Structures are given as C-alpha cells and as structure tokens.
Amino acid sequence: MAEEKESTSVPLSQTGGNGGEDPEDPEKTPPASPNSSTRKACCYFLQSWVSKKFMTGCVVLFPVAVTFFVTWWFIQFVDGFFSPLYERLGIDIFGLGFVTSLLFVFFIGVFVSSWMGATVFWLGEWFIKRMPFVKHIYSASKQISAAISPDQNTTAFKEVAIIRHPRVGEYAFGFITSTVILQQENEDEELCSVFVPTNHLYIGDIFLVNSKEIIRPNLSIREGIEIIVSGGMTMPQTIAPLPRPNDRIPLNRIM
C-alpha cells in the first residue's frame, strides 16, 4: 500500500516537464486572432465616440439648463412679492405677481426721478447711512449699481480702459473713475484713475495712468462689466480704439 501511494503522488513540476503547458507563460500562449483585435478596436472606437458625443451634449445643455434654472428661480422669487396678495383676493394666475413687481419697479424709477421722489429717497438714504453695519453694505452695493446705471454721475464708471499692466506687452481691463492733475515743475500732467478689478467688481487695484497712454476701446460700460464677470469669455473678436479727441490745451496756458 505504501508503494502504491508513493507511485501516485507525483510532483506537479514533473508533470509540467512531461509536455504540460503553462498558461501563464507568454511564449506558450496562442497568438490573438485577427477577429478579436478588430473587435477590441471597434469597441474602443464606439466607446470613444459615445463618450465624446455625451460630453458634447452636456456642454450644449449645461448653459441652457443654468439659464432656465436661474430664470425660473428669478421669476418665482419676484412673483413671490405680490402673489400672496392676489391669493388673498382669490386671484390665482401664475406670473401676475411677476408682472406686478416689474410695474412696481418701473413706477419707483419714475417716482424717484421726480423732485418729490428724490427728496424722499434722500431722506431714506440719510437714515440708512446712520446705521452701523448696514451703511457699509449699502455703500458698496450703491457703487456697483451706479456703475451700470443709465444716469451716469460722478461715482459711476466713466469709460472702459485698457492699460499696459503688469509688464510690457501685457494689458489689463479697467474702468476710468476720475481724472486728476499732477502738478510738476516743468509741466502739469493729467492722470486718470483706472480701477482694475481683481475679484469680479468688488475688489481691485487703482492705478494712476497718463491719459495719453490709456487705450479707450469701443466698448460700453456694460460690455466691459460682462467681459470681466465672465472671465473674458464674452470678449469680442475685434477691439478698435475710439478716436482720440483734439489735443487738449495745457493747464498752464489756460492760467
């Protein structure tokens, strides 16, 4: 019995040497057929085509979805101001509160444009500016709204400007906010205060640049704001500078 057990227990290494094939040996594995290679290439091409078209669809639908979502949210938000009033009156028409809100804003603009409305607005502004924390929020928001206001005043952005910054050959978008005369011994120099936003429109740097070195493009204030807020994605393909005005008379000749 012991001899029979010894004869039956043969090591696996010996069986491999007697003609057995090792499936992990790359030299002994059979070569891939042409049909399997073609199938893999077709699967790879189909997968690449499907993923590319899917990403194209996402790129196309993403701005549409965001626009629809923001517009729908804005309509519901504005509609919520007057819709409860109509619900108490038994009137349930979607969008009526939104239209009422737009008319309300329009009539507020008409009222503030009058002498009486400007007086009431001035009193309300005087009261808000006396509040400790609210006055800072109101002042910052007022400066931003004044920049895009159709009634330009001394606090609004005057023009869109392009200055050479930070190195030669590089340019930066900014807004001209005011002008100042730098008095020197030889000749007075007119400088423009250019606000260059670094974080949308809230934070930025102020540069005093010679008025002759400023490039004034053919862009409105709103177009300049859209370019900065969008990160340059709304930049027009061609920008042409506005024609320069006639040479100004130096200040020392006027005096």
From TrEMBL:
Q: Does the keyword Nucleotide-binding apply?
A: no
Out of the domains of life, which is the source?
Eukaryota
- Enumerate the residue ranges of region (Disordered): 1-38
Keyword tags: Membrane, Transmembrane, Transmembrane helix
GO CC, alphabetical: Golgi apparatus
Q: Give the transmembrane ranges.
A: 54-75, 95-123
Name used for this protein in its record: Protein LIKE COV 2
